[in-house]
Amino acid sequence: MTDESTTSSTTKRGTGSRGTGAGLFAAVVAAIAASLCCLGPLVLVSLGATGAWIGNLSALEPYRPLFMAATAGFLVLAFFRVYRAEPAACEPGSACERPATKRATKASLWLAMCVVIGLFAAPYVVGRLAASTDEAAPVTTDSVTLTVDGMTCDTCPATVKKSLTRLDGVVGARVSFDPPQAVVEFDPTKLTAKDLVEATAAVGYPSHTAD
Predict the structure, then answer these.
(1) pLDDT, averaged in runs of 10, over the chain (211 residues)
(2) pTM for this one?
């Protein structure tokens, strides 16, 4: 009976550890899904990808609160398992009894927490940084204001700006979420307003010159 009881307790403890790990993995995946609508287009454009399909990722924006709530739920459950749940007995000398194993589990929990916070904060931080790094244009350039459609979060202006500033001839772009527009300074000997409109449309954000 003693051996059976010990084996059962060890099995429960092992299952609990695996459950904690699965919960942390699910939390990180849900956090990535919550940030995909904002960070996905920017990452793809930064890597040189083009195509109107990129803007389709912004369709996930309405589901972002659900993904964030799921992430919070998984993290709360993981913290409860690690800090609040009554631990099952371990077989003497087993892995679950070792302090190093317990420390590794707690370290993984806090690391996952930091990753989640970083993913949640990234869209806002990137959006603010993009807005604060606008470049001044030389006096020999032309300026055009584009009304941009399809922007749904703070990171979208950074994606639109990236699509514009990678064009040879664009010397400055100021893109805002509210109002949804882009003020672009460009060399008229290299580009036209049509080229700028095509550049934003190529990454999934249709635009047109403001009247």
Answers:
(1) 46 54 84 82 79 74 86 88 64 56 81 87 76 58 92 87 92 91 93 93 89 63
(2) 0.63
In CATH, what class is 134-209?
alpha beta
Give the 3-state secondary structure of the chain: CHHHHHHHHHHHHHHHHHHHHHHHHHHHHHHHHHHHHHHHHHHHHHCCCCCHHHHHHHHHHHHHHHHHHHHHHHHHHHHHHHHHCCCCCCCCCCHHHCHHHHHHHHHHHHHHHHHHHHHHHHHHHHHHHHHHCCCCCCCCCEEEEEEECCCCCCCHHHHHHHHHHCCCCEEEEEEECCCCEEEEEECCCCCCHHHHHHHHHCCCCCEEECC
The ranges assigned to domains in the chain are 2-131, 134-209
